[in-house]
């Protein structure tokens, strides 16, 4: 098994006793278990494993222990909802905001996140080396956008482009430019390459129902990602944009609020993944203006808000690989856990938890490393009051139900003896 990113050696061994261990894949609980952890990895799980003499011990008191959560659609550096204005800020200031965002994510039980626009190798490394406290960051660098697309933040009256370090997008046009842009992201260690397949809410000049990039441009990015044993994530809302991306080899679709029955068939045929982000529209509607979302973007929210839940139900009933994502910005980050409550309106609690553990790990190429409680996996663990396999509210309200957070074998927080 490859080395688990963020695992640290040298920390004292940890033992969690009297645990009810959740197997999310099978939807079962096993009571009276002891977990033995060393070097950031789960060593043993059982009724009476051998315990190191110099270990720190915690009693779960019969509470449920689940794998650390994965949020597969975040922007950890998004300190404001006006991402294009943020691109003009000092990178030191943006990084300071991001460190606070990530610390709070970890406190809510998210031990791994996939950043789909903005974070780079420096952010990932800062967390891995313990310089910043936060979830393990699987990053894609800057998202690729055509001129006038979802990653182009220029107002209609502006013609010059700036290549700023804090911009979430990179404007590129034509096959040679998109190949070079994809190769640049991959050169920096990106785990995926994101492309804008349709218009979006936060961008000032494109329509949500537009399609972006040509077939040849998308295929070029897919070709470069596959050559590097990586994959392409595609921002898309409408069935037209989603279906086109899936046919051309895009592996994960971000948002997908307006998918149709053909979309479901294509997801299944290509074993692709859907990453809905429902809570962001709920909060953009309620708080977008106060969080800095420009007026033009506020007017786009209604287009995708109502359709999102119906799309999620369509995908779930159709057997699509569904992954947990939130896409929150600025002051809206604290609502991250509310995504569990929203999804539970149309999905069973266990399937919602699957989307934030087992299925998310498979999308990230970390199956068996995260999202599971088993020997050899990362010791990313949560101790909760209640059974999240039956009640999604357990995860939707971490301030009430989350008792302990362990990341890579280190106790981040705990209210247990």
From TrEMBL:
Keyword Hydrolase part of the UniProt annotation: yes
Gene Ontology molecular functions: hydrolase activity, acting on carbon-nitrogen (but not peptide) bonds
Keywords: Hydrolase
Residues annotated as domain Amidohydrolase-related: 64-412
Keyword Oxidoreductase: no
UniProt-listed Gene3D superfamilies: Metal-dependent hydrolases, Urease, subunit C, domain 1
PANTHER family linked: ALPHA-D-RIBOSE 1-METHYLPHOSPHONATE 5-TRIPHOSPHATE DIPHOSPHATASE (PTHR43135:SF3)
Entry protein name: Imidazolonepropionase-like amidohydrolase
The species this protein was found in: Nesterenkonia xinjiangensis
């Amino acid at each position: 098994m490859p080395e688990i990113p963020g695992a640290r050696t040298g920390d004292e061994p940890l033992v969690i006793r009297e645990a009810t261990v959740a197997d999310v894949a099978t939807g079962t609980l096993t009571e009276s278990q002891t977990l033995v952890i060393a070097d950031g990895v789960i060593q043993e799980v059982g009724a009476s494993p051998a315990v190191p003499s110099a270990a720190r011990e915690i009693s779960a008191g019969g509470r449920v222990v689940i794998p650390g959560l994965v949020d597969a659609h975040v922007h950890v550096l998004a300190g404001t909802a006006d991402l294009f204005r943020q691109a003009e800020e000092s990178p030191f200031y943006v990084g300071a905001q991001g460190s606070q965002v990530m610390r709070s994510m970890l406190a809510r039980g998210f031990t791994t996140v996939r950043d789909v626009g903005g974070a780079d190798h420096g952010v990932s490394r800062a967390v891995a080396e313990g310089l910043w406290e936060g979830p393990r960051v699987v990053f894609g660098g800057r998202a690729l956008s055509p001129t006038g697309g979802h990653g182009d933040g220029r107002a209609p009256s502006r013609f010059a482009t700036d290549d700023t370090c804090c911009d979430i997008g990179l404007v590129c046009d034509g096959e040679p430019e998109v190949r070079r842009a994809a190769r640049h992201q991959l050169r920096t260690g990106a785990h995926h390459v994101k492309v804008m397949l349709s218009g979006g809410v936060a961008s000032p000049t494109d329509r949500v129902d537009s399609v972006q990039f040509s077939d040849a441009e998308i295929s070029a990015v897919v070709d470069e990602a596959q050559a590097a044993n990586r994959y392409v994530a595609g921002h898309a809302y409408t069935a037209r944009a989603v279906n086109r991306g899936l046919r051309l080899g895009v592996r994960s679709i971000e948002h997908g609020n307006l998918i149709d029955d053909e979309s479901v068939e294509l997801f299944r045929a290509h074993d692709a993944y859907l990453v809905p982000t429902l809570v962001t529209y709920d909060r953009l509607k309620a708080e977008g203006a106060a969080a800095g979302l420009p007026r033009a973007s506020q007017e786009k929210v209604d287009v995708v808000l109502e359709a999102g839940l119906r799309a999620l139900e369509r995908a779930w009933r159709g057997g699509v690989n569904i992954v947990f994502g939130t896409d929150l910005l600025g002051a809206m980050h604290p609502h991250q856990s509310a995504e569990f409550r929203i999804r539970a309106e149309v999905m069973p609690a266990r399937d919602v938890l699957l989307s934030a553990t087992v299925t998310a790990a498979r999308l990230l190429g970390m199956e068996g490393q995260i999202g599971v409680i088993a020997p050899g996996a990362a010791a990313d663990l949560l101790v909760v009051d209640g059974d999240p396999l039956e009640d999604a509210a357990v995860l939707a309200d971490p301030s009430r139900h989350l008792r302990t957070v362990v990341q890579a074998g280190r106790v981040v927080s705990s209210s247990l003896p």
